[in-house]
Amino acid sequence: MNLTATTPPPATLPRKCSYAPADWAALADFWHPVCYSSDLGGTKPLAVVLLDEELVLYRAGGRVVAAKDLCIHRGVPLSLGWLEGEEVVCAYHGFRYGADGQCTRIPAQPETPIPRKLCLQTVLAEERFGVVWVCLSRSPRQPLPDWPELEDPGLKQMRMPAALWKCSSARHVENFNDLAHLSWVHAGTFGNRDMPEVKNYDVEVAPTGIHFVFDYPRHSIEDYGRRGAVEFIRYTYDLTFPFYTRLRIGFPDGRNFVAYNLPSPRSARETNVMFRLTRDFDLEGPDDPSIALQTQVLSEDRPFVEAQRPEELPLDLSEEFHIRADRFSTCYRKALIDLGLGRDFSA
Ligand code: FES
Ligand SMILES: [Fe+2]
């Protein structure tokens, strides 16, 4: 657990908010991933955008500090500044801020006491699974996902380069959890166009997420690249609301590959897609083959997801046509309504 020290202020809408206000407030109550842990380091603070909110991240006092990317002296982004020891220095007039966000020095008037209100607007930040998570509200609605494999040193641990997709995060989630597209969109890698039928499957909806299992007759990927024989692979999906899916791909010989889909909602129509990956085989081998295959699979998905219209995910089930194979999708849309998201939900 790695929380910022100060109590964050109540969440207020960002200046240029692309969400309906009620949808933004509902999403602000959740933890969201914003970058990899390894993105933080050196002497430069990191600028990120979450739910249209511009944030600055840096390490100080042994933890990650997240705050609005704004020096309240004259409104300059702190991400233009630099880190010195445990403090971040604003590049415009040199104000310094400590690990708790409090201003510690005003160089132009060094003898004058610094008022307490001269403090960054910090928000909750936590580092877990090699990822930095941020919650923009005071009290997260639910804890971080329960993903023990990502902290298991006995597994091969990997991550994909982040990629900015021009899509809503919820459309991205539905694609990642969609079964009927596998035989079509992924026919160039593992998809089996000769067996496109999606048999009935059960979907379990819990207060914190959605679970389902499906056996797919996919083409094996020999040496991570060549298409091989058809074999039934067990896909186990566990979504943590609102956007974060753990997909375990279980092979008939007992090997497991797990993909953790981390679509960070930058705005209503932009998603910074991150992935953590684990495998319990080829432990001493390089990351590259797993990364390359996953990159190829995602490049097959991306043109479809970015072209979907409306960009917003329609929560009103009458607005799109649903088939039996869409059982996850219909449950997901209903669940988002239960979480307080509206009919024009666009995250
Ligand atoms: S704007 Fe940051 S020190 Fe003046
Ligand atoms: Fe896909």
CATH architecture of the largest domain: Alpha-Beta Complex
CATH homologous superfamily placement of the largest domain: Naphthalene 1,2-dioxygenase Alpha Subunit, Chain A, domain 1
| Shape verdict | globular
Bound chemical compounds: FE2/S2 (inorganic) cluster, fe (ii) ion
Tell me the CATH topology of the largest domain.
Naphthalene 1,2-dioxygenase Alpha Subunit, Chain A, domain 1
Describe this protein's structure:
With 347 residues, the protein is an alpha+beta fold. It folds into two domains: 21-135, Rieske [2Fe-2S] iron-sulphur domain (Rieske Iron-sulfur Protein, 3-layer Sandwich); 151-338, Alpha-Beta Complex (Naphthalene 1,2-dioxygenase Alpha Subunit, Chain A, domain 1). Helices cover 15% and strands 33% of the residues. It contains five helices and 18 strands. The strands form three sheets. Strands 11, 12, 13, 14, 15, 16, 17 and 18 form an eight-stranded antiparallel β-sheet that branches. A hairpin with a 2-residue loop joins strand 17 (256-267) and strand 18. The chain starts with 20 loop residues before the first helix and ends in a 9-residue tail after the last helix. 37% of the residues are buried. Fe (ii) ion (FE2) is lined by residues 175, 181, 185-186, 301.
